[in-house]
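debug: dumping io for the single-chain case to check the tokenizer round-trip. Nothing else runs in this session.
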Amino acid sequence: MFTFFSPNSNYKDAFRALKFLLLPWNWGSCKNGKYAELVEKKLAGILGVDRIYCFDSGRTALHEAINAFGVGEGDEVLVQAFTCVVVTNSVKYTGAKPIYVDTEKDGYNMDVEDLKKKITPRTRAVIVQHTFGIPADIEKIMEIAKEHDLKVIEDCAHGIWKGFGTRSDAAIYSFGVEKAISSVRGGALYLKKGKPDSSLPHLPYKIILKHLLHPIFFSIGKTFYRTFGKALLYFSKKTGLTALIIEPKEKKGKRVKWFPAKFSNALAYLAYKQLHLLPEFNKHRQKISLYYRENLPEKYKQTVIDDEKQPTLLRYPVRSKDRDKIMRRAKKSGVFLGNWYDCVVAPKDTKMEEMNYIAGSCPNAEKLTGEIFNLPTGREVSVNLAQKIINLLE
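debug: decoded output
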């Protein structure tokens, strides 16, 4: 059951990608390229802001936000542990040093008390991650940041809705394959003041090609998985016909040569079409998240998800000391549960010595990575499937 990988995509996205494969002169931001600008306008309207800037990825958006604040060599940027390597790299590529802040003891976002302890005279900014779409305590963090003259960047890669991420100095959004909407690769930046660098290069055509092939191969592979689909997906991955979410170089803290880059017209087209479906996607995620909250066995109930609000969660987080056993059992039943994140700087094969993380500095996050697994909330998850997943946990 493909409940995580490309949860928003269907055959329509495959046909849209195929359409652009036949029009390579429209892939970049040429005279016929209008979709990046259309995405910016549409997303600005959804969020309720005047201006949004699109890039090839959320990681580029984050890198450009840090650059826009003049952060560089010798500076420190506070980053939540229990995050992705691309967040850490976006800091490192500016010349600044990432300093990790622990997670809440029983939650998934930044611990405010540990944040206070990690601020030094060299700290210039803090990146606030809203993990899974669970809002962090942004008001308290903004208060602390103001006391120390720090810039606040909200990492909203796990959700998009009105007002989300617009209270701070900047916010970034992602259109990756597993995000709230997907163009395979893409992202956006909100800046309260100033403008980002507009002179970035375009993505190379061969990289755009790989991303356009993704929805085509995945649609076919998913439909015919029990026959030749599995082999097709394996072949496309191993031969490099489709792009990786995170390149091997990035896991070593190295920069790929096409980073950072502008948002291509072809991929922006996919994002633009999905943005029109965002209210439907969010409503469905709310429905499934609420179903999990109300029907999970008592031992999986969590107060971290506010009962007074309807959560719009990219993934529904669950914790158990028997995580690996539960995930194996689910896999045998054909359900692949997620494990964001099973390492303080994910993925697990990240070269940790390059990430500046000091073992033991974030004990809550380290404990969390050994217990966390997550349940799908995307459009392919019906209430019946959600109940089947719940049954596998008992």
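debug: round-trip ok. The chain has a mean pLDDT of 92.
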